[in-house]
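Protein Record: Sequence and Backbone Structure Tokens
======================================================
Scope: a single protein chain, as residues and as a discrete description of its fold.
Tokens: labelled as protein backbone structure tokens, with as many entries as the chain has residues.
Position: the record begins directly beneath this header, with no further notes in between.
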Amino acid sequence: MMPGKGAQITLLQYILTIHSVQIGAGLIPLPGELAKGCGTDGWIALILGYIVSIAVSLVIVQVMKHHPQGTITDLVAHYFGRWAAKGLMIVFICYLIPFMYFIYHRMALLVQNWIMQQTSLYLLMLLFLPPAYVITKGGFRIFSRYAEITFILSLFIPLALLFLLKHAHWIHLLPIVQDGWMPIFRTLRSTLVTFFGFEIAFFLYPYLENQKAASLGIVLANTITLCVYLFFTLLSYVIFSPDELVTYHNTLISLFKMVEFRFVERYDILILSVYVLLIMRTWLPMMIAFAICTKQLGIKGSSGLHIGILLAGMVMVTWLYNPSWNFSTRLNNCLFYAGLAVALGLPLLLWALLSGRRLFARRLT
């Protein structure tokens, strides 16, 4: 069913929602991870990852044009039957839950390590539960407004970092492709993970007011994400030496520590506090997509109830097992392969099936 007029979102909200899901906790260690893979040529790997994400994103839009009145599960039910749709809902649920928990857990870990070392991890997650519930309960319309506000509030972050350019050593970027192309292609794995999130367009498409602009919107969303990644990556490369860069785990936090103002004693703490609001944008839309899947599966209760149970469940898991950074790293590795299947493989598979179905129907007529 087409969402009601009050639930629809504008093109700008569509762009910022997709961009929000892509920018998460992975931004903080990204420059260091790229440097470990291919040195200061990491920015090239970012551009290659951007090209792949653009191509697959456009495929998603072409797939959704076959059934613009509903989400991806509605489309599959329309063309391939109810049982295929139910199977896809289960696949999405199994993909979304660990993805959301990874970001939720990693966000709490960052706050614990850099701000509130003596506070239990599950208590930190519990603090974020009420705002997360309120925002996601309102659906994509409410979240998109949150994305707009936080995007505007975050614009001061790169502007403040421009003061560090007086310490820049641009010679660090040379020579380009110094070790050949193979290290860059191997690092493509890290860049693909950072662009995952565009698959939220499967659920977001029917809410867009002007669906004719969906392709333009998803290209702009990926482009904004690329600009953010390139800015922080290149800035890290010219500020830190190549040998120094690979020693930092949370590269951007180390970069923020170098910013000094007379009226702010710990600028990195201020930035991290704002950044938490940005990380929340990554997993909250997936919470809404999760509620859509559970409702379409026929599970009783409102979407708000499903979201509340899942949030409480993630806090309970953390309280019982207290997962560490090592667990978060292993989960991230697993999500890479899950992302390849859902974010990259699924759109291509559906596009091939729908194109083949249309070609077969034309030959019959």
